[in-house]
Design goal:
This protein is of the alpha/beta class. 43% of the residues lie in helices and 19% in strands. It starts with a strand and ends in a 15-residue tail after the last helix. The structure holds 5'-O-[(R)-(carboxyoxy)(hydroxy)phosphoryl]adenosine and zinc ion. 5'-O-[(R)-(carboxyoxy)(hydroxy)phosphoryl]adenosine is lined by residues 10, 134-136, 161-162, 164-165, 176, 178-179, 182, 269-271, 273-274, 301-302.
Length: 331
């Protein structure tokens, strides 16, 4: 089976081809630089940019996979969550393509796809515990079998990626600040400042808004003493913030491992690219003697390879969709 995956939920226009026999054949991403000057994604601009690049992106993914649309069996497309205008571009394109070439259609939940990105190179055994961490979501999910998911808990306010981006911005880093914060943190001291993290005992929930406020007040106070405080200590501050965020994530992951005793653990979503989180999760799973899977760095942030593999896994189970399928902005 050959699946063409299309992703357009936020600010990446992406297309990929997955073959059940040969694995991933192509993975093309057109990133939108237009948002950088605004410090975040502007929905209207994102939809327009998707519209401009979707055809070329899909064409390139087929070309790189050395196949034509006629070789494709199924078109898989992100159904949500995401920006509705952006989703509609990929959605309409996928429907048009499937309809005109008589292909089957599968709608894919973007958050499921982040989890199943772990199936591109590996075969994690169920039950799987997933720490799904992205720009819009932070969740602990128990995956009992394919598409049998139980949400154990999620963030009450900001997502972990959002926390990296917003606090990174306070530290003078451009959007998206997460990857830049990661790079700076690698040269810094994580114990430079001990920022507080809320633990919300008895739940698998997270909260990062208090951390954001704590950093804001810390910087305000320190800058009064030394106006160059951020510039002089950026690496250490990035390391300290990363320490607080990853510590909160790992603490709940460990709690869930102890309670649910999964066969494997996976990390998923853009923040799973974070080196401190990868390191801490590796240490934890080693200690708990449980196999850990983390997607290859290129499948952590938004991509269409994860849509194509999830589309394949759904199609294998006969979970196709009709042309009446609608996109959704929220989970
Ligand atoms: O999964 P993703 O690409 O998009 C969503 O579905 O939201 O995640 C994007 C988020 C952004 O907040 C970005 O700053 C964060 O993932 N991110 C990182 C790293 N790479 C991406 N955060 C921390 N460290 C990284 N290396
Ligand atoms: Zn995502």
């Amino acid at each position: 089976m050959i699946v063409l995956g299309i992703e357009s939920s936020c600010d990446e226009t992406a297309a990929a081809v997955y073959s059940s026999e040969k694995g991933l054949l192509s993975n093309i991403i057109a990133s939108q630089s237009v948002h950088e000057q605004f410090g975040g994604v502007v929905p209207e601009l994102a939809s327009r940019a998707h519209q401009q690049s979707i055809w070329q992106t899909v064409e390139q993914s087929l070309k790189e996979a050395d196949c034509s649309i006629e070789d494709v069996d199924t078109v898989a497309v992100t159904q949500g969550p995401g920006l509705l205008g952006s989703l509609l571009v990929g959605f309409s394109f996928a429907k048009g393509l499937a309809l005109s070439h008589n292909k089957k259609l599968v709608g894919v939940n973007h958050m499921d796809a982040h989890i199943y990105a772990n199936w591109i190179d590996n075969q994690p055994q169920f039950p799987v515990l997933s720490l799904t961490v992205s720009g819009g979501h932070t969740q602990i999910m128990l995956v009992r079998d394919y598409f049998d998911h139980e949400l154990l808990g999620q963030t009450r306010d900001d997502a972990s990626g959002e926390a990296f981006d917003k606090i990174g911005n306070m530290l003078g880093l451009d959007y998206p600040a997460g990857p830049k914060m990661d790079k700076q943190a690698q040269q810094g001291n994580p114990k430079f400042v001990q920022f507080p993290v809320s633990h919300l005992p008895g739940t698998y929930e997270f909260s990062f808004s208090g951390l954001k406020t704590a950093v804001l007040y810390h910087l305000r106070d320190q800058k009064e003493i030394n106006p160059n405080y951020v510039e002089e200590n950026r690496d250490d501050l990035c390391a300290s913030v990363s320490e607080a965020i990853t510590k909160a994530l790992i603490k709940k992951l460990d709690l869930a491992i102890k309670e649910f005793r999964p066969t494997s653990v996976v990390l998923a979503g853009g923040v799973s690219a974070n080196s401190m989180l990868r390191e801490k999760a590796t240490q934890l799973c080693k200690k708990r003697r449980i196999p850990l899977y983390i997607p290859h760095i290129s499948y952590c942030t938004d991509n269409a390879a994860m849509i194509a593999i999830t589309g394949y896994l759904k199609a294998k189970q006969g979970l196709y969709d009709g042309f009446e399928m609608k996109p959704f902005a929220r989970l």
